[in-house]
Amino acid sequence: MTTTTAVAAPHATARSKASAAVLKAEFRIFRREPGALFWIMAFPTVLLVILGSIPSFRETDASLGGVRLVDAYVPVTVLLSLIMAGLQAMPPMITGYRERGILRRMSTTPVRPSAVLGAQMGIHGAAALVSALLSLTVGRLVFDVPLPRQAFGYAIALLLAILCGLALGAVVSAISRTTKAATAIGSAVFFPMMFSAGVWLPVQAMPDALARVVEIAPLGAAAQALGEAAAGDWPGLSHLGVLAVWTVVLSAAAARWFRWE
Asked: Where does the protein principally reside (predicted)?
């Protein structure tokens, strides 16, 4: 027992150090990608500034319950960052590693391929979170958009939304055999997710029948949950439940279909 434990401990330490080295290396690579940095971390806030500069977006709208369009678009830009991270940035990167045999070669070293996948999901999730905080800050300082009145509920909804977006990206990575396929599939899923998140029309302003359909989609439910928390209400359990179910289902699908080589 003692000998086995003594042997296992160095292996665990070696893997931990290797995983930390992978995370550091992946972060360095991500930091050198200006396209990913812009589209994930800057573009949503830039879009918010452009929309907020339109005078009509700063006027109250009866169809939105008396709030301004710019207020309704802050949660939308928050979701846009995780769509960019999960569907546009992460799948081509992971698929490229598989396509070039990097994951296969890693399986023979102390660095497991899962360390790369975990690092990619962690980095892109953190980037989406930073972008969300940037949108909230700019919305508050530039357009006087109130910060979420139900902060804890907002944080839970945002965390579930990020996990769901990353799980969706993992599914795209799992079913894509090449980088081109990952880009094509990610783009095909990208636009429906943008619509359901309310990029073209906030979910609150959609006709009731369309809104009910959109709320079944992961980002439609996320948009509603974030909007409710921003208004000071606890996010609806149905919306959080939809997010949680989608996260579990997508994660299970990604785990089942993902291949390291």
From this structure: membrane
